[in-house]
Amino acid sequence: MAAESLAELRDWLFLLLLCLTLLAEMLELAAAAVAMEEGEEDFLCPLVCRCDEGFVYCNDRSLSMIPPLPLTATVLYLQSNRLANSGLPPSLERSSSIRVVYLYANQLDEFPIHLPPSLRELHLQDNNIRTLPRTVLARLPLLERLHLDDNSISTVSIQERAFSGTPRLRLLFLSRNHLSSIPAGLPASLEELRLDDNRINTIPTHAFRGLASLRRLVLDGNLLANTRIADDTFSRLANLTELSLVRNALQAPPINLPSTHLLRLHLQDNGLIHMPRGTLDGMRRLQRLDLSGNNLTTLPRGLLRDTDGLELLLLRGNPWYCGCNLLWLHAWLYGRGAAVTVRGLTCHGPEVVRGQALRDLSGLMDQCEGPPGGVNTVSSTTTTSPPSQGSMFTLRAMRPGLVMPPGGGEAGGQASHNALELTVKPLSADSVQVTWLCPQPAPSFRLSWLRLGSSAALGSITETLVPGERQQYLLTQLTPRSHYLVCLLPLRSTSSHSGGSQRGQQQEKDTTDQTPVCAQIETGEALRPEGGDGGEDSDSEMAALPLAEIIGGATALVSLILIFGIFCWYGQRAGYVSGETDSYGVRGQRGVGMGKPYDDYVESGTKKDTSILEIRSPGLAMTPMMTHQPLQPKGGEDVTYVHTIFPSSHGNGTYRSNQSHNGIITQLGHTAGYGTNRGYREQGMIPDIDYTYT
Fold first, then answer.
1. What is the 3-state secondary structure (H, E, C) of 31-80?
2. pLDDT tens digit sequence for 443-489
3. What distance in Å separates the CA atoms of residue 516 and residue 64, rounded to the nearest whole number?
């Protein structure tokens, strides 16, 4: 009995253990099911979207409402939909993992409200947002990049201190909006600011106050002018590395540009006419300078003296005048060599070098007399060489304060003073040859010329230095039929002083105490040299031919051609008509009283044929008729041939009648003819004689 009791107890214990095992398995399955239900939202991707780990792609789906999103999403692509402000659910701002949201190209007309506070980057461009409220931006304390391009934001619609709640904002894009000034209250953490293509026309001194961290500033496509930019506007941006002022109304670069860290400066498409000498001072780290699309003709010497790190210089689209004024730039280009890339430095004037690059003018630049602006050049030392082209390589207004001696010149082209004899002779309408004779040798001469009527104080005097070995000089590209005052001054220095500075002072004193020799000359038609063939003079006379005479001659030539053409046409027409009359006789003349013959075929516009249509029974036959063979009636009977212009519209076109008309009898079977263009009148019995010729 004891053994049986133990066996039964063992069975019950085994059964109890089995039940406990099954219960544990059921509890584990239930817990797993509950865990699956609770964590379903964490892994479920919307059916209309595509998910890739933390990236959710719901763009270009024509959505008007954002579907429930996974809680693990970090980047939301919601661009190019139809989302309005009501399409953003409030549950979106409860997310703590979303870092980037793309909402551009939607239908937002207000700044979105329900955005997650964990947002770092927000793209809202290409919407219709009009205002920037401070309370909404304050909900995004971690925001670093904000894109608001292509909206309808104006200066007054930005609430005061709107960016005070975004202390980490580093990038702000407000391009292509309706701004009329720089937004106020920008955060000090800002590193890049884009305000291009707005309506900004004024920048006050305090516009960029507090933006010491700003690295890049873009103000392209606004209405900025030099008079509306404060002097110290950009000097406060000490850490600026890129400044872009493209497509504005500047005539010169703004003064006091930041120079310490600036790497790229864009000034193209402004209409610049002047670059002050100190514009680029201190910009030793400048790498790119763009001056394309302006009205610059020259650059002052010393402009690039501090730009040792310059790598790219863009100068295309400017009317560069390649004279001695750019001799320093030519030397600078060769000095830098391949270290700098220069594009667009193509000469627009003078005419002889138009279209050539400045680098290719080494031979012509050697003709520059003296050291223009401090650059030493090699000049010719032979007296037998031809005169230099003064109008090409001269220095315009090298000393604007220099004033020509009034009334010092003598008319007639010759003057003398202190044994210096000056002769001025016109060679053509725009060139003058200057020769002089100086008994006392001089190291060099200063040759100056001025078109009378211009003010010397405004810098209209043109001058150049000529070596003392020369005795002639050629002035070209002058204004025709104008009076010029040409002056020559020998430059002498004394060697009695030993000190270098004293020698320079003494030389300056000697040159200023002397009075230049001046002569007046009037440019006009070139003088024909004696014994010459006159080829060059003929060319100059043709060049001076008035435009009115050219137009008149062309008009007369065209008139003669028209008259000759009309005469030939009339003669050909008269000969054609008379030839037809002689060959076929006088047929179908009208208006004989007026003496104007008419040919049947010419009048009707049909093609002449040498055959007639003879109608016989039973059918039709084409019978050739020779030009000079008269028609003979058959059997001695009178036969009437009726010639019409157009085929008949009734039957076979045969007129049958037994009646007489003007003594001519037409008989059946002996009448051949054509129908008329009007057919028959009165039930088809009487032909239209106006269009029938017998």
1. HHHHHHHHCHHHHCCCCCCEEECCEEECCCCCCCCCCCCCCCCCEEECCC
2. 788 888 888 864 433 445 787 878 877 888 888 878 887 888 888 88
3. 87
